[in-house]
Every structure is written in C-alpha cells, then in structure tokens.
Amino acid sequence: xxxxxxxxxxxxxxxxxxxxxxxxxxxxxxxxxxxxxxxxxxxxxxxxxxxxxxxxxxxxxxxxxxxxxxxxxxxxxxxxxxxxxxxxxxxxxxxxxxxxxxxxxxxxxxxxxxxxxxxxxxxxxxxxxxxxxxxxxxxxxxxxxxxxxxxxxxxxxxxxxxxxxxxxxxxxxxxxxxxxxxxxxxxxxxxxxxxxxxxxxxxxxxxxxxxxxxxxxxxxxxxxxxxxxxxxxxxxxxxxxxxxxxxxxxxxxxxxxxxxxxxxxxxxxxxxxxxxxxxxxxxxxxxxxxxxxxxxxxxxxxxxxxxxxxxxxxxxxxxxxxxxxxxxxxxxxxxxxxxxxxxxxxxxxxxxxxxxxxxxxxxxxxxxxxxxxxxxxxxxxxxxxxxxxxxxxxxxxxxxxxxxxxxxxxxxxxxxxxxxxxxxxxxxxxxxxxxxxxxxxxxxxxxxxxxxxxxxxxxxxxxxxxxxxxxxxxxxxxxxxxxxxxxxxxxxxxxxxxxxxxxxxxxxxxxxxxxxxxxxxxxxxxxxxxxxxxxxxxxxxxxxxxxxxxxxxxxxxxxxxxxxxxxxxxxxxxx
Length: 575
Prior knowledge:
Elements (H helix, E strand, L loop, with lengths): L2 H14 L3 H13 L2 H7 L11 E4 L9 H18 L3 H4 L1 E5 L5 H14 L4 E3 L6 H11 L3 E5 L8 E8 L9 H10 L12 H6 L3 E3 L2 H12 L13 E4 L6 H10 L5 E3 L25 H10 L3 E5 L6 E6 L5 E3 L2 H15 L6 E6 L5 H8 L3 E5 L3 H15 L2 E7 L3 E4 L8 H17 L4 H12 L1 E10 L2 H17 L4 E2 L2 E8 L13 E5 L4 E6 L5 E10 L7 H25 L5
Parallel strand pairs: 2-3, 2-4, 3-6, 7-8, 7-9, 12-13, 12-14
Antiparallel strand pairs: 1-5, 4-5, 9-10, 10-11, 14-15, 16-21, 17-18, 18-19, 19-20, 20-21
C-alpha cells in the first residue's frame, strides 16, 4: 500500500473540508495511521447514480458528508444551468428527513444553489420524501433534492435528485451530473451564500405550509370509496421517521377516527432507538406495531419507513390473526382496487418491475388495461408512465415494486407511503362495507387470477472477493441456464444485460417457469449482495379452502427455492 500517497490525499481532503467535525475525524484517523480505514475512505468518490448518493456518514470522498454534498450540488447546479434554460426562474426544491446531519446537508445544498443564481425552494422542517417529489410539480421547479437515506441504518444518509417532471433522474441525466461533479473545485472553494444572504437576494425561499396542505388535498383525492369508517381500528407507525404527523392528519381528514400510533416510534428520531434497521421488512421491525395492535385489537396495521415513501401492511386473517402482507400482495390489492373501483378510463395503465409478481400483469390483461414491467427502481416506473402517456395517450393509475413501494395516480411521480396508507385504509373501509376484510378481498382476487406466492433470498458477499463471486455466479447462469429447476421446466430465459424485454441493459437474469412461476437473480445496486426472487403460481381447486391451497403453494415455493440455491452453489455461491 502506498501510504505516503494516501496520507497526501487525506491531508489535501482534510484541508478542503468545510466541516470541523469531519476535519477532526480525519485528523484522528491520520494520527492513528489506520491505513485500512483511510484506504476505504479514499478508495473512490461516493458514486453518483440514478439514486443520487447514499453512504455511511463520515470524512472522506467515499462517505456522506458536507464536503461531498457541496461539490455534488455545485455539479448539479452547473449541469442544470447547461441543460435547463429556465432553471434560474423555476428553481430547485430542497427537502430533508430527520436523520443525523440532514439539516446541515440540506442547508448546504440550498446555499450552493443560491450562490449559483438558482432559487432554492426550501422546506424549513423535515418532510416525507413524497412531499418533496410532489412539490416539484406543484411549484413547476426544474429539479429537487431530497436529503434522506430512506430505511437504511442510522449511520447512513443520502441525496436523492428529482427532475422537473417530478420523477427521479434516469440516464443520461445521472451521467451528465456525475461528469459535472468531477469538474468541481475543492469543497472549501465552492461558492455559497448564507440563508440571510440568499433571502436578501430573493433566492432562498422558505416554503409555506400551503405546499404541504396541497399535498394532503392531492392524496385525499386519491380515495375511491371516500366514506371512511367509524369502526375500523388502525394502528400506525412512523418507524421513528417523518411520516407520523402527515399520516395522522390524512387519516383523520379521511374519516378514520380510530387510529392508534405506536407511541415509541411516532416522533422523528434519527437514532432509531427501537429498531436497528428501520425497514418494515426486517425481522423485529414490526414487533412494537404488532404488540400495539393486539393491545387495541386493531383490524389493520400501517407502517411507513423513516422517509415515508414505503408502506407495510398487516391485516387479520379468517382466524383473527394479524398477518404481514407481502409487497406483492399489497400491490395486487391496490392495482385491482384502482382498476375495478376507480374512475373508468379509456386506457388505464399499471406498471410494476421485473422482480415483482407477474400477477398484476394477469389482472391488467383480464381487465383490458395497459401493463408494463420495468427495471428495479421507482424512477423507471414513473418515467415509463410519462413516456407511454405522451406517446399513446394511456392514463397511469397505479405502479408498485415488491419492496413496499406504491403510488396511486399522479399526485406524486415516486413511491408514496403516506398516500398509499390512505388508499389502503380506504380499501379496508370499502371491504368492511361489503361485509368482508382486506384478506377476504385478496382471496377473491386469488381465486380469479391464481394464487401467487413469492419470496426473496439475499446472499451477502463482501469485499473484492465477494464482488468477484457475484460476477461469477451471474456469468455461470448466463453461460449455462438450467433446463429445469426442481423438476419444473424453464420455459424462457431473459437476459436483461442484452437489453431484452425492450429495457435498458441491466445485470439481471430471469427464468420463466412452466405454470407461471419465475426465478430472477441480480446483484444489489447498493450493498454487497446477490438477490434471488422466487415466484410460484398455484390454482386453487373449486371450493377448496384457500389456506389449504396456500399451504400447498408455499411447500412448492420452498422446494423451488431449495432447488435453485443448490444450482447456485454448483455455480460458485458459498454454502
């Protein structure tokens, strides 16, 4: 290891770092001569991509910090001025969650924008990510920045960029912004104005409550049943995030008086004291919600992640037990509800991703709706909806991804956990009025369109050796795709790296199975993992109790998973 060169780079970065805390942090690492730590901090610049930035907070270019954000914002500002002629009129929205350093990073973002002559429409308090996405369209802004790390652990933060169409950026915008960032001067030389200087120039514009009120009106308008329920009991958790006050007000305005918050998790707290990993999908994350729901005998549990762009749902089954619905089950429920109970449209359009369930496609075809599958990530859902509306006149009504992300209608062009919570409550009230339940409605759909069960398995393979193993596994499945998996014939192979399916090239391989199942594999874009997605379709016999059919389906799914993981081990995956 070239420790002399590493020390020189670290000292140069430290001197240009505008934050005394990270300056001191780096000085301490240098004093200890912790070369492994330094090498990791300076291994690369934190990569700017279609998800913007996300990383562990700390000093150095491979961490999230104020120096990185100032340089990133300068690059974004200069790219916008080069590509969006009226950006200095329209401005850029700046929002933030309640994580550690979010306020400082958002203020730095606004300070750099206004120094570049671009108006910054700044939310003075933390807001949900969908509120920032909504504000882009509401204000006709040229772009937006949301400072958030969504559901990552507390040591993370991030920087998400939206374009003027309200959707997250896609290529070539990400490449253009990254190129502009690479040309930016050291962080301490990036021009910026203080909030007072920016306000004096009329460029730093604190957003009034009217914007948030407009968002609430927009999501209230997404409801289809619109009658609420005095009897439906709902438990809600904000998971220590920023959704609590927004969801509480929305549900109250929608006519749901019996909403019990999970008190320990209702207020924003970037330490996330009751959950190590504030993602509703993680083991243990819903324990407090379940305990609260059992105490008040709730019918429904709604959970947002910390920036409130995702939604988890629990509902009671026929035996009175609370069951966590999968992201695919919630997606199927909302998709069917919107297509059958919403305003009749000439060409309704629904969209999901290539790793989500195929069932939404079956429903769309059965109901004569337009349907698309896109790459993983809500940016692709929103941009495909816009593209097809412009070219074909379709009307986007719903999109989802299996990782608990949903959007109904076009109030926001990103996933919206608060809006989705409101529509799920509306759906539950509609079910109650019909004499059924949320899971009873799901059974109706499954009897007509088949019982789809799914699962995901992640294998963590850290470091350079792990990355090589992941590449080897992907290439082995490409070079020698299986003819069958666990005795079920592979009916088609789709390699998305070749641009198959009419989508941008992506490192994903999918095996369609005879009978309607599917196995999909891809490396994670943000973690050292390879991800496997499994789906099995079962057709319940006429009159067969659905729990019996589900038990059979789950057994077949488990066998499919075991068979595929055995194939993966043959191709190099560690046992």
